[in-house]
């Protein structure tokens, strides 16, 4: 059983490592990490069965770390260790399906019993895996979905690879199906049952026609992996759309990716299918939408257009409104009279689909961020001039850029506040930028740049000001000698300390005490 230990306190981490290693169980500590970020990096290289993690850590708490682990490695067992006997922590631990919760100081017998139970549980799971049938289990379906949803289509579980192999030999594709208007047409208390009825209708037809493997992806989306020949699958999907339309008050829209014979291609086919079904805001719902970049007769974005869209995405992320406007003008600086209007609408579809797909790789969703509703395409197609179209796109992309910038600033502000707290807590040590950067798992150059960008000050100036403020506090205690205060805040040379204090405050420490009658 491979165990990963996570704690921001080095002493606690070493204590835990020794206790686990001395348990005499068949376990191996494959790594230790002092932050959630470092632990996630380690998990990219090591197979981990069990994680023992402190619940309170800076920047990424144990609970946030656990949620990220659940997304990437849903089968890993997580045990939280906390110095707080707080029901709130235990409740949150239950929400991320923690396997256990231990209080510091951890009793050796409790720790060994927990490890023994987890070892037995993992043994039972492995036995079940060995007898698993060819059909995908619910856990395997979840793993397949996780792989599809990963940004880079990296490592895939061996039994998932074996399952997909027969599909890929003949050529396979991915179709994404979404229930239309579920949230605004159906009352909240009835949505689950309405979605379930459509799920049964779809699943029945998929099974009856042997179309492939159907997966549930969220409350209103389904994923179909199929190796049915393209012409037949297209006809069957059109029939499926019609069956839902006639058998339900709701409809479905289906996006279809390209056919492929490789795992990498199948992952890309999933991305294409998702992007295609998301484009229904512009193309209309209750229909089959092919991947925009692959559809003939539509050519893909030209190389020059592709470069402009890439620059526009960079400008959106950097909150550069002038550059966004320049890119839009460059993309739409063409003759749109007469029959060329349809070409412009086609270009809009391909631009937004590419932006959406690129943003998805960064964990963002273009359509959700802007809350584009089904009435938007009607409004867009009613525009009579290119100026109207540009004005609408400019307003929406500016809004998107502002949202992403605000989100980035909130994340940066949280980091700066954590830096303030860390420095204040360690002022009586020789704290440096290098030490602070290492604590937060950044390089000194990057952290210094982020700090200067957010506060407008160099980190060294901030640190010196904080240190001098602390000196002033300590000088108010008449029992403390000046050289003792200097040593407490990290100065070894009393002359240098006096010079620094006078430069910052405008007087020597002795003059400061006289002025304040200390």
TrEMBL record:
SUPFAM superfamilies in UniProt: CheY-like (SSF52172), Homeodomain-like (SSF46689)
Keyword annotations from UniProtKB, A to Z: DNA-binding, Phosphoprotein, Transcription, Transcription regulation
Single GO MF annotation: sequence-specific DNA binding
Gene Ontology biological-process entries: phosphorelay signal transduction system
UniProt domain HTH araC/xylS-type: residue ranges: 417-515
Every Response regulatory domain range: 2-119
InterPro entries xrefs: CdaR_GGDEF, CheY-like_superfamily, Homeodomain-like_sf, HTH_AraC, HTH_AraC-typ_CS, Sig_transdc_resp-reg_receiver, Tscrpt_reg_AraC-type_HTH
4-aspartylphosphate: modified positions: 54
PANTHER family with a match to the protein in the record: ARAC-FAMILY TRANSCRIPTIONAL REGULATOR, REGULATORY PROTEIN POCR
Designated name of the protein: Two-component system response regulator YesN
Species name: Paenibacillus methanolicus
């Amino acid at each position: 059983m491979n165990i990963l230990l996570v704690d921001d306190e080095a002493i606690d981490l070493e204590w835990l490592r020794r206790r686990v290693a001395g348990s005499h169980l068949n376990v191996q500590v494959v790594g230790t990490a002092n932050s959630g970020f470092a632990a996630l990096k380690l998990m990219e290289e090591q197979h981990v069965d069990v994680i023992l993690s402190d619940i309170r850590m800076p920047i990424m708490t144990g609970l946030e770390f656990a949620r990220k682990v659940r997304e990437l490695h849903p089968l890993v067992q997580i045990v939280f260790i906390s110095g707080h006997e707080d029901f709130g922590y235990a409740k949150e631990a239950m929400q991320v399906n923690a396997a256990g919760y231990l209080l510091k100081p951890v009793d050796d017998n409790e720790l060994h019993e927990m490890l023994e139970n987890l070892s037995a549980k993992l043994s039972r799971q492995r036995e079940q895996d060995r007898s698993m049938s060819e059909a995908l289990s619910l856990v395997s379906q979840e793993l397949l979905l996780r792989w599809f949803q990963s940004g880079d289509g990296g490592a895939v579980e061996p039994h998932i690879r074996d399952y997909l192999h027969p599909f890929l030999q003949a050529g396979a594709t991915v179709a994404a199906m979404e229930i239309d208007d579920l949230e605004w047409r159906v009352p909240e208390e009835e949505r689950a049952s309405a979605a379930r009825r459509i799920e049964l209708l779809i699943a029945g037809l998929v099974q009856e026609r042997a179309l492939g493997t159907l997966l549930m992806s969220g409350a209103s989306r389904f994923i179909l992996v199929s190796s049915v020949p393209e012409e037949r699958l297209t006809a069957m999907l059109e029939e499926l759309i019609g069956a839902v339309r006639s058998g339900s008050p709701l409809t479905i829209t289906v996006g279809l990716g390209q056919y492929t014979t490789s795992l990498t291609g199948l992952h890309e086919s999933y991305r294409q299918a998702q992007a295609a079904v998301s484009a229904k805001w512009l193309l209309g719902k209750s229909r089959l939408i092919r991947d925009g970049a692959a559809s003939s007769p539509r050519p893909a974005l030209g190389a020059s257009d592709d470069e402009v869209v890439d620059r526009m995405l960079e400008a959106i992320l950097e909150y550069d409104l002038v550059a966004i406007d320049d890119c839009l003008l460059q993309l739409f600086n063409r003759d749109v009279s007469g029959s060329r209007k349809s070409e412009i609408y086609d270009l809009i579809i391909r631009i937004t689909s590419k932006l959406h797909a690129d943003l998805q790789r960064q964990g963002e969703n273009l359509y959700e961020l802007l809350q584009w509703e089904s009435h938007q395409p009607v409004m867009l197609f009613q525009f009579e001039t290119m100026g109207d179209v540009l004005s609408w796109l400019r307003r929406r992309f500016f809004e998107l850029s502002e949202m992403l910038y605000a989100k980035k600033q909130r994340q940066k502000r949280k980091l700066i506040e954590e830096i303030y707290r860390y420095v204040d807590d360690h002022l009586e040590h020789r704290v440096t930028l290098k030490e602070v950067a290492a604590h937060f798992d950044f390089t000194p150059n990057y952290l210094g740049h982020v700090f200067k960008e957010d506060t407008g000050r160099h980190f060294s100036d901030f640190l010196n000001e904080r240190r001098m403020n602390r000196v002033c506090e300590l000088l108010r205690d008449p029992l403390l000698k000046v050289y003792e205060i200097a040593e407490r805040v990290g100065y070894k040379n009393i002359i240098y300390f006096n010079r620094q204090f006078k430069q910052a405050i405008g007087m020597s420490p002795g003059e400061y005490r006289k002025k304040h009658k200390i």
